[in-house]
Amino acid sequence: QVHTAESGGGLAQAGGSLTLSCTVSGTMSSINAMGWYRQTPGNQRSLVATITSGGSTNYADSAKGRFTLSRENTRNALYLQMNNLKPEDTAVYYCVAIGYYPLGGPFDVWGQGTQVTVSS
After folding, report:
1. Which residues contact 93 (CB under 8 A, 6 or more apart)?
2. Each residue of 8-61: pLDDT tens digit?
3. Is the Cβ–Cβ distance between 99 and 28 less than 8 Å?
4. Are 35 and 96 in contact (CB under 8 A)?
């Protein structure tokens, strides 16, 4: 099985910064893409940013210019540097890893989520 685990959430003031980390563990053939999504109560999970194994990134408009995604392939790790945080960034942030098991089946594994709270 494959597991993802997030860390780094917490409380920040508006204008502050936080860095979220995600690590992927387990038996896998490849990780094709990783990303961060976020969810607030009563709303669907929404894209924050994703990155492919080749390094191509995709950011939500709300994240562009403030958030930076990076990936450390050798450690199966993903990082989200969040700067100039706003109260509307308050959400539970989820890491997702998408790839293939050794026998070829695909996986799409989500973490438990980490809470980010930004105070005004």
Report:
1. 6, 9, 20, 36, 37, 38, 48, 80, 113, 114, 115, 116
2. 999 999 999 999 999 999 999 999 999 999 999 999 999 999 999 999 999 999
3. yes
4. yes
Go through the chain and tell me how many residues it has.
Answer: 120
Which residue, chain included where needed, has tokens 């005004």?
120
* Residue pair 81/73 in contact by the 8 Å Cβ criterion: no
Pairing mode, if any, of strands 10-13 and 114-119?
parallel
Q: Are strands 67-72 and 57-59 parallel, antiparallel or unpaired?
A: unpaired
CA distances 100 to 16, 62, 75, 111, 120, Å, are 37, 30, 17, 17, 42
Asked if 52 and 112 count as a contact pair (C-beta separation under 8 A), the reply is no
CA angle 57, 42, 115 (to 5 degrees): 55
* Lookup: tokens for 119: 């105070």
